[in-house]
Amino acid sequence: MLRNELTKADIVARYLPKKLIAVDQAEAFAPSNIALCKYWGKRQNELNLPVNSSLSVSLAHLGSHTQIRPATSGEDQVILNGQVLTADTPFAAKVISFVNLFRGQQNYPLIVDTRNNIPTAAGLASSASGFAALTLALNQYFQLALPDTVLSAFARMGSGSASRSVFTGFVEWRMGQQEDGMDSHAFPLDVSWPDLRVGLVKVSSAQKAVDSRAGMKRTVETSGLYQSWPAQAARDLETIHQALIDDDFSQLGATAEHNAMSMHATMIASWPPLLYWQAESVAAMQRVWALREAGVEVYFTMDAGPNLKLLFKAKDQLLLETEFPDLEVVAPFAEDSKTNLASESVNAAD
Amino acid sequence: MLRNELTKADIVARYLPKKLIAVDQAEAFAPSNIALCKYWGKRQNELNLPVNSSLSVSLAHLGSHTQIRPATSGEDQVILNGQVLTADTPFAAKVISFVNLFRGQQNYPLIVDTRNNIPTAAGLASSASGFAALTLALNQYFQLALPDTVLSAFARMGSGSASRSVFTGFVEWRMGQQEDGMDSHAFPLDVSWPDLRVGLVKVSSAQKAVDSRAGMKRTVETSGLYQSWPAQAARDLETIHQALIDDDFSQLGATAEHNAMSMHATMIASWPPLLYWQAESVAAMQRVWALREAGVEVYFTMDAGPNLKLLFKAKDQLLLETEFPDLEVVAPFAEDSKTNLASESVNAAD
């Protein structure tokens, strides 16, 4: 951290009352999200401020449920999918240091109990939904009643893409320009595509060798092609905007695939090469391209991992389930769940 | 072609006598070459003028033998690996139109007999060695006694990378800047690395769906990351120069691999995505990286196809032949064959 650089704690403190008052228990859900225009590269590390704006679709019911309650033992406790973690595991340490941003020196020992219902093999990161759910739960627990955009900015300080998981449906995260990052938050787009389907193709559930944070860093520092990325991402974001306005699925799918491939290209041009693909990833891509060649409107996107996420329309679901037998299909707008999680998350104590 | 743009024929004519005189028969050999800093993208299509300079190593005895003799039938004949081709096959058409650059309207019906000794499965393009050997044979056949650099520039008009196949050993092709392209030719570098080995890994010998010419075009026109390529290639060329001066194999290998991956990255970021890799290509890359992780100094490069070309030192040959059972190993400097093919190619009639 540079001298005089704002810390997360400085920023959060501005939005909080001097003295916190907690309810008995709070609970929130936040969905996973799949970026159609990717976040890749930070302009500032401490606050997770991105080099480019991004756009995602949230995965409806797939995500993280987080409950917060007082730790009567006086010691913080982090529970993940029913398992109590010791404080020195990376996950527990991250959760506790995020909670500390809110409670500061005040004596609020907490139990943070998180359950992810993301299919473990699907290669979906849980940090986005996890930090979003935690932020929403803390907002309830300490009765902060913060605006959605502030909650999104806070979630972003936990994990960049968590800023988008605060909302459902299509979500845009504007990169912002302020030093404190408070204009770098997501907002929901007023578009609903009930026919859209996202298909999760499992290639491998192995732990990735290089995590996204380290991957971004290596790309920014060593990839000669990375300097063209911000302009590419800006163009793709505009094209996806237009596709949403025009209700043009092909344009959206093609741009999302091109954007994902461009992001992976920046990694492949890193040194040492950063290749998240497995042999099976290439085989799956080739199947998608062959299907498209045959007239099926299917596109894919990929994150910092080997798995493909297919984008297609409801009418092609059966065909794609035949082609990809283990496909896990999500309907992001099935119940037209264009709701505001921040305002509607449950405060169990109310 | 734009109006007023120079044609190949205009340019060649400048270097030729008004009236050609032929010998009875001429024969030349030119080696394949593997670029360590790749040629990817044309700034001018008619003359194959490149966007960036490149650097290669020639593959010693692997390449094309081309013999030219008069066609007593009065009809041109093109023979490839012993098979007579009809004039309308793409290969024959290209050869004849190249020969026409030299003989113009003069009546010299020819038999062009080419034999490639490149292992067919190794995924080596034969157009580089083919056009280089043809240029050298024509130089002999018509007793042109052209300087090597002119022959290299002529070969470039047949196929860009043929400019480098006119020479053995390490070869640099400077992009040049003249409109007629006559400063866009290769020259040999005065460095010999007898310990260097190139290992050809066969992944697939299937015909590629998109040829290099079309692939370059798509990349230049649709890849948002391509704009960063020329600067990357320029940096890599400088680094490889320095590695040659410092006798630094690791630097050479690492830069060649980084350069190849960067080139493929520009393709992957094209639309539709241009992926020359097969699933097996990724598996082979992962084997190389695992070997390097284990301390073996091996690097790879790849061209517009699915096959890997390994770079390693003589001492590791046995180990690599065990790891890659079908490896075809070439010693580019084994007989320290730093010769000038242009001057030494056989003129059977002399």
From TrEMBL, chains A, B:
Its EC number is 4.1.1.33. The keyword NADP does not apply. Residues 30-186 form the Diphosphomevalonate decarboxylase-like N-terminal domain. It is an enzyme of class 4 (lyase). GO terms for molecular function: ATP binding; diphosphomevalonate decarboxylase activity. It comes from the Bacteria. Residues 203-317 form the Mvd1 C-terminal domain. One of its GO terms (biological process) is isopentenyl diphosphate biosynthetic process, mevalonate pathway. Keywords: ATP-binding, Lipid biosynthesis, Lipid metabolism, Lyase, Nucleotide-binding. One of its GO terms (cellular component) is cytosol. SUPFAM superfamilies: GHMP Kinase, C-terminal domain, Ribosomal protein S5 domain 2-like. Belongs to the diphosphomevalonate decarboxylase family. This is diphosphomevalonate decarboxylase. It comes from Neptunomonas qingdaonensis. The lineage of its organism: Bacteria, Pseudomonadati, Pseudomonadota, Gammaproteobacteria, Oceanospirillales.
